[in-house]
Amino acid sequence: MLVAFDDTDSLESMCTTFLATEIIKALRVYDLIGLPRLVRLNPAVPWKTRGNGALCLNLGIGRGECDMVGELDGTPVYSYRRMYEEADRSLVLEVAERTVEKWSRTSEDASPGLVVSDRKPAQALYWKAVREIVRKEDTLQELQRIGADMVGWEGGRGLIGASAAMAWRPRDRTYEIISYRERERWGTPRYLDDISVKEMDLRYTSTFNNFDHRTGRRAISPHTPCPVLFGVRGDDPRELMSAVFSIRSEPPARWLMFLSNQGTDDHLVRGEPDLPNRSYDFMATVIGDPSTVAGGHVIFPVSTSKGRLECAAYEPTKDFRDIVRELRPGDRLRLFGELREEPRTLNVEKMQVISLVPVTRKMANPRCPSCGGPTKSIGSSGGYRCKRCRSRNQLEPLMEEVPRAISPGWYEPPVCARRHLGKPLKRMGL
Ligand SMILES: [Zn+2]
Questions:
Q1: Cα(379) to centroid of ligand 1, in Å?
Q2: Choices 1.20.1070.10, 2.40.50.1010, 3.90.550.10, 3.30.70.1290: CATH for 268-356+405-428
Q3: Which of 58, 168, 225, 415 could form a disulfide with 33 if both were Cys (CB 3.0 to 4.6 A apart)?
């Protein structure tokens, strides 16, 4: 039985993944079939909550091989590859509803949604929700078609994300192990040894987005008072587990492994930017010098077949801006980023410099063609006059090529400034 939920967290307190551990606990009579799924959706939707992530669990009686995929307050959680018997729908619905109600913060801008179904919604619902904007009516229509049960609170906008998470059939996938704090520590500073995070990042190469080696800052723990202690992402579930257990920290009360679309670039629309609140992957040519504006953001214009477009590397992208500042008119780029509505600017998330134009600068005035003497510029009329024999010439000045400070290749912002969905260059084998 598939159980999916979304938009249960407000900006500063709860976390939807924690709710997954609560539902698994409350429905202990059943086994997890496959891994719990943490599905990130279009990061550009205007009403997103913190990470815009939805959750989906599959519950039933398992059979055959199973793996330990978590631990909740001292009890191991197993995931089965196959289902022997489906979970009771009304029991799952009743318990999940009660759990969401207990843990969601509906007082703020959250608008939770819960979906229970033994059939998956059409895959198209996922692709639309990760790249575009889905209307609630379309979601409800699809849920009715598959005969799903649903509960929405405060408008139930979360039904959209919940259905999309349930609809996800992974094309590319990653894993995340999230560990949670003991209840009495919630809201207090987290104890987590940065050195051990750094060592983990260097040693377990299939993990990603853990540590910013330039600033010496870890990126695995949130800055909010939520129950999450840390989350580590990776490509190999076994190595991920070893990586997590190598971290020195306060004792976690729970941990759970999720299957996720994080780090897959699933949110990118291939093609030139068109509608706002979507993210694109497209080719462009730089048509002006970059400039740094108030706040430390770096802006540069590109041309696409649809016209001029301003692109931005925002201040949090730190060193990435130094690369962007080196772009010059004529450079060819493949750009990845979100098109904002107002101002209409593309927020660059990653780029490939395809080719760089030669940049030259004037080295000296030409020598006199008659006597070889030095010349000086005549001025606005153009041309040069010999300082020795006074004859004029129309020669070009002597130019030299300036070495470019960047090379063709791939560039991405530091770990702390990346999108959940963005595919790190590390995962692209670069
Ligand atoms: Zn001369």
A1: 18
A2: 2.40.50.1010
A3: 58
CATH number of 175-260: 3.90.600
CA of 387 to the centre of ligand 1 (A): 7
For residue 400, report the distance from its CA to the centre of ligand 1, in Å: 23
Q: At the topology level of CATH, where does 2-169 sit?
A: Alpha-Beta Plaits (3.30.70)
Q: How far does residue 389's CA lie from ligand 1's centre (Å)?
A: 4
Longest dimension (CA), the chain: 102
For residue 385, the CA-to-ligand 1 centroid distance in Å is: 8
Q: Residues 149-205: pLDDT tens digits? A: 999 988 888 999 999 999 999 999 999 999 999 999 998 999 999 999 999 999 999
Q: From the CB of residue 331, how many other CB atoms can be counted at a distance below 10 Å?
A: 22
- Within 8 A by CB and 6+ apart from 403, the residues are none
228 and 386 Cβ atoms separated by less than 8 Å? no
CA 320 / ligand 1 centre spacing (Å): 50
Q: Left, alpha or beta for 50 (phi > 0: left; psi -120 to 50: alpha)?
A: alpha
What digits encode the pLDDT tens for the residues 284-327?
Answer: 999 999 999 999 999 999 999 889 999 999 999 999 999 999 99
Look up the pTM and report it.
0.92
CA–centroid distance, residue 361 to ligand 1 (Å): 24
